[in-house]
Amino acid sequence: MTSPPPDKAGAADTVTGGPRRRRVRGAPAGRGLGGAPLPLLLPALLGLAFLVLPLVALLVRAPWRSMPDLLTSTEVWQALRLSLVCATAATAVSLVFGVPLAWLLARVEFPGRGLLRALVTLPLVLPPVVGGVALLMALGRNGVLGRWLDSWFGITLPFTTAGVVVAEAFVAMPFLVISVEGALRAADPRYEEAATTLGASRFTAFRRVTLPLVAPGIAAGAVLAWARALGEFGATITFAGNFPGRTQTMPLAVYLALQSDPQAAIALSLVLLAVSIAVLAGLRDRWMTAS
Amino acid sequence: MTRSARRSRRTLRAVGAGAAALLALSACSSSGSGSSGTSGDSAAASASDKLSGTVTVFAAASLEESFTTLGEEFEKAHPGTKVAFSFGGSDTLAASITAGAPADVFASASPKTMAIVTDGGDAEGTPATFVRNRLEIATLPGNPDEIASLKDLTKSSLKVVLCDKAVPCGAAAHKALDASGLELTPVSYEEDVKSALNKVVLKEADAAVVYRTDVKAAGDKVEGVDFPESAQAVNAYPITLLKGSENTGTAKAFIALVRSAVGQKVLTDAGFLRP
Question: Which residue of B169, B188, B198, B222 is the best one to mutate when testing the A interface, meaning the one whose CB has the most A CBs within 10 A?
Fold first, then answer.
């Protein structure tokens, strides 16, 4: 209450949670929001409102009274459980294949590396439905590779939970690869070289030196991949179909509920929102330090 | 130096991600376009025979082929007009109409989905049934699994897809299965009749329960198997003018074409039954 500007800044800070974060991260105090030039502050606040308002609208329009009934149905729990299991499995798959791929892109010089990097990031910009169609053509029962999987091993991926994991991993893995590759490029390769000159094999050096060095990057990538997999819709419904308990994840349940019961769709959306926020908030510090 | 290079690369990457997000946004919004009806013409159009402007027709996915043909005929008969279609699951269409999607005409695959629009107060007048449709089993070409009846679909070795119960074709399939006392566990409940059929066209599923008209439209990519229980679940297709229409004259003319002898011929040729 001393002078107008700090007061105004204080009010704005409570909205954005600014000071708390500053304290947590221990960054220099800097100038308050009151010092921010209006041409920057105004669009920033509009941008914030644009991102947050739809989520607030979900809360406003939520059918709180019928919520308990809507959320205790077995279909909801099936869908939520399946979503969590599949997103986690897809993240595991992404870790197993994505970390070595990121290492290859960051540490090994070879012709066509730029093209390879572009291909790896392609699923980021590809519409997920297109990804789903591509997966059908490749791994479907009649697909380029799927035909052989079927006739040799009797494995068919479409319409199975494994198919959901495949679809989610396809769209989520690039997020992990990009994060880990960025972390690897930022990490000093001299530590690895030192380890190898001291007698460690290249793989040991990777395992004992590089991996711990880029662990925050891997964690960040894993969180991003997990979140992306949790929200995956297009590729899943195209490649894996929609069957409650087997391939119907939360986003699919939300989409189909919206057609017959919008109230239920809002309730389901809120559950997914809560889960996402809980995970991102829980892992925020590790995520933040990596970026 | 390396740090700044790294930073600029990171900035570039962030810019790229932002651009990708914007692209995704614009891609989403573009699906809603194509409905740029020229307003202001409606009064002139209803006053005289001269029709003009764009009619936006929301129609059930099963009507895609025959309505596309009718749209072309309409545009030929009335130069200066344009018929823009949005085909999809009747429930999705009905939901978007009640949510304010700009459309002039709605043709749904069941009275139940039409009721969503009429109950929402979005229909002008009373919807009229213009065709009926029966279900058929779509199998792989040559019917390698020798499916001859609805009961054959319950074999556990078969991958069968159905439409979701929220969509008319799914509701009808459910009714037919109930009428015959059969329990059928599909591998997937698809979001509309075309995606159910396409799983068979792509040979990912062995059979699907879809409309007769869809089997016919797919040509030799699938083989149709008639089943008597389909008589228990005949779908009536209602069509209506919408309240939000800004081009009522042209929209009414399109509805008239659908219900005319010419329109009925196109529809029955596609396998629909007369109302």
Answer: B188
Instruction: Give helix then strand counts, H and E, for chain B.
Output: 10, 10
DSSP B125-145: EEEEEEEEE-EEEEE-TT-TT
What residue in A sits closest to B190 (Cα-Cα)? A242
Contact A243 B20 (CB under 8 A): no
**Residues of B with Cβ-Cβ distance to A159 under 8 angstroms:** 159, 187-188, 204-205
Average pLDDT over chain B, rounded to an integer = 83
CB distance A202 to A248 below 8 Å: no
- Work out the average pLDDT over A266-273: 88
pLDDT for A123-166, tens place per residue? 888 888 899 999 999 999 888 999 999 889 988 899 999 999 99
Helix (H) or strand (E) holding B86: strand B81-88
A110: tokens are 């070879």
SS3 content of chain B, % helix, strand, coil (to 5): 50, 20, 30
Rounded to 5 degrees, what angle do the CA atoms B48, B50, B56 make?
110
Which helix (H) or strand (E) element contains residue A237? Answer: helix A234-239
| A278 CB-near residues (< 8 Å, 6+ apart) | none
Q: Are B240 and B120 in contact (CB under 8 A)?
A: no
First vs last C-alpha separation in chain B? 77
Q: What is the pLDDT of residues A168-196, one digit of tens each?
A: 999 999 999 999 999 999 988 888 889 98
- ipTM tops 0.90: no
* Cβ within 8 Å, pair A142-B202: yes
Residues A248, A242 contacting (CB under 8 angstroms):
yes
For chain A, first and last CA: distance in Å? Answer: 37
Please determine, for residue B214, whether its predicted confidence score (pLDDT) is greater than 60. Answer: yes
Of B189, B197, B184, give the one whose Cα is nearest residue B167. B189
- Yes or no: say if B260 and B77 are a contact pair by the CB < 8 Å rule: no
Distance CA A125, CA B24 (A): 8
CB contact under 8 A, A159 and B188: yes
